[in-house]
Amino acid sequence: MNDQIKIVEAEILECRNKLNRKKKRIPLLIFIGIALSFIFPYLPGRRGRRPMMESWKYHYAVLFCAVIIAIVLAISYSMDKTKLEKNLRALKLRKYLIEQKRQTKN
């Protein structure tokens, strides 16, 4: 039983570390998003197509790319965070159930 609890506690610690790393990565993702929003208007969408900058004004293209990147980053961060929190709750429940099982045997 103690081995199971130690394993679950290690998994809980790992999950918490992943959540903390995800929070620390936010400024880097914002910086990358800003940089990409200035680069994307120069890139053509498909082969043979003109870059976005040729059909739109540059500042509108940058703003459009920034909004799209912000939406994608927000959704992906939210989904990952929700998944990790759900996993953390499941691990805490598993630890609680193991402890309850151990107490009922004593």
Structural write-up:
The mean pLDDT is 88. The protein has helices at 2-24, 26-39, 52-55, 58-105. It has one domain. It is an all-alpha fold. The longest helix is centred in the last third of the chain and has 48 residues, at 58-105. The radius of gyration is 23 Å and the shape is rod-shaped.
In short:
The chain has 106 residues and is mostly helical.
Say how many strands there are.
0
Helix percentage: over 70%
Return the string of H and E elements.
HHHH
**End-to-end Cα distance:** 12 Å
Low-pLDDT sequence parts: none
The overall average pLDDT, rounded, is 88
Strand content: under 5%
- Give the assembly state of these chains: single chain
Number of domains: 1
**Main β-sheet description:** none
Q: Structural class of the secondary structure composition? A: mainly alpha
Radius of gyration (Å): 23 Å
Transmembrane segments: 26-43, 58-79
Keywords: Membrane, Transmembrane, Transmembrane helix
Task: Chart the SSEs and their pairings.
Blueprint: H1 2-24, H2 26-39, H3 52-55, H4 58-105
Short descriptors:
4 helices; mainly alpha; rod-shaped; single chain; 106 residues
